[in-house]
Amino acid sequence: MSRSEPALIDGRALSAELIGLAADETDPQRRRNRVLGRLKEVLRDGRALAEQRLRAGQNGIACARSLSDLMDEIIRAVYDVAVHTAYPVDNPSAAERMAVVAVGGYGRGMLAPGSDIDLLFVLPYKQTPWGESVVEFVLYMLWDLGLKVGHATRNVDECIRLSGGDMTIRTAILEARFIWGDEKLFKDLAHRFDTEVVAGTGPQFIAAKLAERDERHRRQGASRYLVEPNVKEGKGGLRDLHTLFWIAKYFYRVRSGDALVEAGVFSRTELTLLRKAENFLWSVRCHLHFLTGRAEERLSFDVQREMAVRLGYTAHPGMKDVERFMKHYFLHAKDVGDLTLIFCSALEEEHAKQTPLLNRFFGLATRRRRRKIAGTSDFVVEHDRINLSEGDVFERDPVNLIRLFHLADKHDLAFHPDAMRAVTRSLKLIDADLRENPVANRLFLDLLASRNQPEIVLRRMNEAGVLGRFVPDFGKIVAMMQFNMYHHYTVDEHLIRSIGVLAGIERGERSQDHPLANALIQTLQDRVVLYVAMLLHDIAKGRPEDHSIAGARVARKLGPRLGLTPAQTETVAWLVEHHLLMSMVAQSRDLGDRKTIQDFAAVVQSLERLKLLLILTIADISAVGPGVWNGWKGQLLRTLYYETEPLLTGGHSQISREQRVAAARAELSNALGDWPAAERDAYLERHYPAYWLRVDLPRKVAHAGLIRAADAEGRSLATAVTVRSFEAVTEITVLAPDHPRLLSMVAGACTAGGGNIVDAQIFTTTDGRAIDTISIAREFDTDEEETQRALKVSRLIEDALSGTVALPEAIARKAKAKPRIIKAFTVETRILVDNSWSNQFTVIEASGIDRPGLLYELTRLISDLSLNIASAHVATFGERAVDVFYVTDLTGRKVTNASREAAIRRRLAQVFDGPPAGEKTPVKKA
Question: Where is this region: Uridylyltransferase (predicted)?
Fold first, then answer.
């Protein structure tokens, strides 16, 4: 690449200046300090100029090359000072020669601001005292400049011997570039490396590099669509490009992209695409290093917004500036992945596979093992990979662009690299005619709802660009990320993963995690609508309007095209429009409140829709990212399903509330049959109707035992721990004198103890005591460890309620110790006060930015507002908290006064946002 801008420094002038500085000083230490001081200025000024040019619009490759040039000149100048002033030799022997060589990434002539400097000092023979002194002088000078230097000192024979047995050393020398010293030594090394190491070992090197790439992808998360990608090591990142160029240099012995075109590896268009991606990635990496002041390779949430600003992105309707930046990042990563996959797969196919023994001995060309595929003459199988029978297969019949993927799924075949390259070069054939073609749509629908492995084939279809062109609305969300901590993948990757989860449920692979869904999916009247809805449920993300409503419109338009009946299309549209409903109700509503179930059933309307919505919700949550799905969410969804099913089937009993209370009392009385009758009868009088209707029998029995034991010991305060492994939560039951701030203090103690509350049920007994059940998210794998943790939290709760622990200080310490990635996000605060969601309670929904101690502050304020909390339901979606409270006033009635509702909204909003300027929120002691 031509360097149109002047170099960051004048190397010749620098070398002369430093030699002059050194010559003027006789004391070695002062001489060294003078040279070092000047070098620090040069390095600082050079980097500042490089960043200035980058921010002014210089491309990333130019920046990386200019930084490499800067380092070259500094190393040359340091070397000159070493050999001319520090350790001069008037009449050097043959052994007193040295070549300073850049290897590794530095050898490519490109450096990011924080990159390591990898050097090889090449000697003609064994090390001499002179050589050792020069190397030490250069290295210590570079280290004192604050540089990270990787180095080795070897003679040529050692370089050849070690690179023969060590693939890392071999790769480093492959990238070797002469910097300074004795160039003849370097040329000797390069020649011997070519003839003694590289010759005849191409397949071995290719196989090693491909295996190394696969292992790196596995460590980085196996997806290029992680929303905090690693620019260097991640899938589709710079290291994938390095792998491509290493193999190209090694096998084709080329030093440029143009030579790869001449060798027939890439077309000119593909090379242009690769260069654009490389330039973008280098721009991102250089900006990232400059921004963070270190060799940071991960685009974490806390830097993404500033990176978007640095790179000149602006917001568009429906998409933030940072989301547009990250979308472009993933599109370039996709290009890198597509092209390197084609390149590496082709090499693997051609060179890394063992050829038949006879052919290896006689050098004969390997005959391709081909077999036909039943029902088609356009495709064949080569080495268990589907390939084209002729080069014009797609031009003759564009439907073959869909049929290729359908056959791959049907026959469980991998894709031949030649076929994938032909696909990417034929994308222009996917036009309006093909999109409306009934055969193409039938094949696509069969693939989408396949009973095999649709996720794998759909992902390849997406990576090849076919899926986004065949379904243009899908193309709009390809590589789209959502700037939040909840979603781990881009939208397209999430949709494809959700198809994989759904197929796994249908195959019975997730029966332990999803027992109800696993059973219900076998009873569906129409499984196809579920797969179509799964693909489309987030397809309208990134638009200014609600993506669920916009997605339903997409479904109504696409359904007929895919061959769905009007009834099927309407079902798909309904599922897309309501795909968040069941999750929202299950996680943030009181499932023991009859009104919740009635309202939900009124929307769902049929048992078949309930089944479909449950399965879709489970697959959706499970595909969000690792750790997002847990047993607690599964239990909530199952409870909502079982509570709603009777209303939709007409089997719900219409017995009165009084009758249900009486039945629950009788049920517990029977369970406590070993108690004395008088004691049992007295206990049954201690609970209000709400308790009898909202608590299941096992918990009622456990509560009775806890209260009985506390009474016998004369304790007013007691706790109990129950680990619920399947639900992935641990329950802490607290018995204490009723107090307006009880839940607040319990929440604060849980926060201080590291317990993440997900649900709370609060009940008061007739004798003025509270029996609260707090569910905290499970942390440890074993029940023993989890029990010990929960016991520590429960002891902290007891200490807080007895006044021996200062909660505000304990919570502040916990908040300080917790990483604050959340500060990178902004979340709109929403406070809803609604009297229609429950017949008995006013429901407060508070959502906004999450932080340690939030639930403690919210519950404390609700108590300050003279409200009683009957139940609390806590959900966290990444950085966004949604906390819902079922409350009454102190007389047990709903809050209906408009001015009081406004005051509740205002005060709760201040917990998230702080008081308005000039207004102070009164602080009360806990």
Answer: 1-372
CATH annotation of 391-649? 1.10.3090.10
CATH topology for 204-356 is Four Helix Bundle (Hemerythrin (Met), subunit A) (1.20.120)
Intrachain domains 204-356 and 391-649 with the same fold: no
CATH fold of 11-199? Beta Polymerase; domain 2 (3.30.460)
Residue of 146, 142, 205 whose CA lies nearest to 179: 142
Mean pLDDT of 729-756: 87
Structure tokens at 599: 């309202």
Dihedral Cα 902, 904, 908, 909, nearest 10 deg:
0
Domain map (residue ranges) of the chain:
11-199, 204-356, 391-649, 655-701, 716-913
SS3 string of 543-556? CCCCHHHHHHHHHH
- Integer Cα distance of 384 and 352 in angstroms: 16
Check whether 648 has a pLDDT greater than 80.
yes
Place of tokens 């268009």: 269
141-151: average pLDDT: 94
Which whole-number Å values give the CA distances from 331 to 36, 321, 463, 479, 481, in the listed order? 44, 16, 10, 6, 11
- Across the chain, mean pLDDT equals 86
Please tell me the predicted confidence (pLDDT) of residue 884: 92
pLDDT at 923: 44
Residue 181: strand, helix, or coil: strand
List Cβ neighbours of 226 (8 Å cut-off, separation of 6 or more).
Answer: 220, 234, 488, 489
pTM given for the model: 0.78
What per-residue confidence (pLDDT) applies to 300? 86
